[in-house]
Specification:
The chain has 164 residues and is mainly alpha-helical. The chain has a single domain (6-161), classed as Ferritin, core subunit, four-helix bundle (Ferritin), CATH 1.20.1260. The protein has five helices and no strands. It has helices spanning 6-34, 38-65, 75-88, 94-125, 129-161.
């Protein structure tokens, strides 16, 4: 794709996020399976449902822009999820594994927060008010998920520190 305008960059970044969200949809069931804390499992399950809604919002945006959602593989998310996959292959204490899963999930959340904040700003500049509103909704969800993970980490990290 040639990028001659902010709109071109906007579409390219949306495609990147679309790829990222779809990768997350595939990774979350593994994270749910590997989490030991019931609270963490429930949080990942909630995020799985939320991610499905976020993909639907992106579909709406692509439809309104008359653009294809496919077209780019998000290599950044691939890397973050690969690190999480490697963690899940480790032989770790339950609390240590949960602490590591939270860390991996927060890396993902921070990547998404940066991406959604950027494309929301582009949408505003381009006068795409409905896209900006939908992107802001997702951005708010990502920030809330990060806050929930931080709160959960404050308990699990203490347990992990006492492990071994």
């Amino acid at each position: 794709m040639e990028m001659d305008s902010l709109r071109d960059l906007f579409v390219e970044q949306l495609q990147d996020l679309y790829s990222a969200e779809n990768q997350i949809l595939k990774a979350l069931p593994k994270m749910i399976k590997n989490a030991k804390s019931e609270q963490l499992k429930a949080g990942f399950q909630e995020h799985l449902q939320q991610t499905q809604q976020q993909v639907e919002r992106l579909d709406q945006i692509f439809e309104s822009l008359d653009e294809d959602a496919e077209g780019k593989t998000c290599k950044g998310m691939q890397g973050l999820l690969k690190e999480g996959e490697e963690l899940m292959g480790e032989d770790a204490d339950d609390d240590v594994m949960d602490a590591g899963l939270i860390s991996a999930a927060q890396h993902v959340e921070h990547y998404e927060i940066a991406g959604y904040g950027t494309v929301r700003t582009y949408a505003e500049l381009l006068g795409e008010k409905e896209a900006a509103r939908l992107l802001q909704t997702t951005l708010d969800e990502e920030k809330l998920t990060d806050e929930k993970l931080t709160k959960l980490a404050s308990k699990i990290n203490v347990k992990a520190e006492k492990a071994a």
